[in-house]
Amino acid sequence: MKLSNMLISTLRETPAEAEIVSHQLMLRSGMMRKMASGIYNFMPLGLRVIKKIEDIVRDEMNKAGAQEFLASAVIPAELWKESGRWDVFGPEMFKLKDRNEREFCLGPTHEEVFTDIARNEIKSYKQLPLNLYQIQTKYRDERRARFGVMRSREFIMKDAYSFDKNQEGLDTTYNKMYEAYHNIFKRCGLECKCVEADSGAMGGSGSAEFMVKSEIGEDEIVFCTSCDYAANVEKAPAAVEKQAEEEKLELEKVSTPDVRTIEELINFFNIAPEKFAKTLIYKADDKTIAVVVRGDREVNEVKVINSLGGVVSFEMASAFLVKSVTSAEVGFAGPIGIKTDLLFVDEEVANMYNFIIGANETGYHYKNVNYGRDFEGRIGDFRKVVEGDTCPKCKKQLTIARGIEVGHIFKLGTKYSKAMNGVFLDENGESKPLIMGCYGIGINRTMATVIEQNHDENGIIWPLAIAPYQVIIVPAVMKNEQQVEIAKDIYSKLDNMGVEVLLDDRNERTGVKFKDADLIGIPMRITVGKKVNEGKVEFKLRNSSDIENIDINEIYNRIKKEFIENNLKL
Ligand code: ATP
Ligand code: MG
Which end of the chain, N or C, is less packed with Cβ atoms under 10 Å? Predict the structure, then answer.
């Protein structure tokens, strides 16, 4: 492609609304433009990257035995009502009505649609296993659309849905998807970590997220500093360290006027935070729940919710509710005599001796509290893992980092097939629910994440595999006919070889051309300048500062070498 024929829309200034590098660079390089909050139009260069990522995804999905479909993005409400999700999906779903007042939504995900396809098409175990995928636009009216296409309201997702006749079949399919995802992200040039999204306590995980470490990530991930353990912070089990045994002292009520927070308590009692426990009160549906954790810990609400099993709403109690269950002002809650429906006690607290807690009386705390003797509750792991905690796998230290979720694989089991009567006849002619899995990759989020990992102060540094174009040729002086002729000649030869090549034939200064090439992130640059007199051109990789002076005839082999090194075909 000749740049003189292209709509090039690079910006020198960073648009004010873009907070993160990938968003800034996608706008500055003219890959995309914003149309409305969380809604973007892709421009030719950006679209080429999207297509490249899609091709990699398609290739790996096909290799793993999945078949490509394309479902409609407009989904009738009936399907969602059958699964029970029409009313619970919430405001993220874009709902609409047709001229006859029939309800539809713009698909935020397609479990219902693919369960419907499967139940209509699959009759017998002989048709299983089956793995169907599509690369399609999804709609989610995100509460916090931000960071460009990292979290947008319209985005392209590869979503796959697998159908197996039994659990072993699902395990095999899931493992194939796991492999395929590793290959996909590796080929896209992403350094990615697979994070078990549940504790593994049930013997093998049913869900895993593919995470890319990044400061701007919205997820918190726990990593082991020694082994390969990684988990979502919400799911990572917290180890309980045995406390040094102490003689249980007599319970004592202490007057603590205006001493409410842990900091105030530490100052007042002048002892370490590990000697306090705090009691948090929540409202879960119509029940009031208290959770006791060590003073310096945080309640992991996901663990509490999981332990409750299937709650719809879960929130911190209002000051009014706190007063009614503790008979005290906020700041003096404690487990002794609290009037909640359920009392959850973190294992760590159950192992502490002679600690301090609120007395459920304004201005008072209890001292020398001991679990079992002074109060009892449901013991469990209810706290958030912190940096330095023990790895559940190898017992070494854990560390915490932020991450971007680019993909998610999930064993669904029979949730949708049971709700929607997705059944097949097994070997004995018995009707059985299909065993399902689902597997998603955010295509535009992957694109943005690659930029987060591959850029410098001048712009994007595309990995060769997904670059919009692979080579850019810059004639240094457009008025120099010899330079322009040679540039054109190299251009057509590379084009014939199948290299995706740009020729910057604009009447611009070389500096401007270099700036644009760097901003757009073209992996290889050939400059046709003064040295053509000696039969040489300059060759430069975007990710290196070295400039190689190469014989014009050698340029083709030099480029081929890059393809070979990147495991790409020409
Ligand atoms: P998140 O926790 O980030 O909201 P999710 O759990 O809602 O993600 P899934 O429903 O598992 O995401 O969707 C599969 C993939 O689609 C995600 O791994 C992510 O790459 C992508 N994705 C989800 N929501 C968005 C969005 N609003 N914008 C861009 N990509 C998205
Ligand atoms: Mg989401």
Answer: C
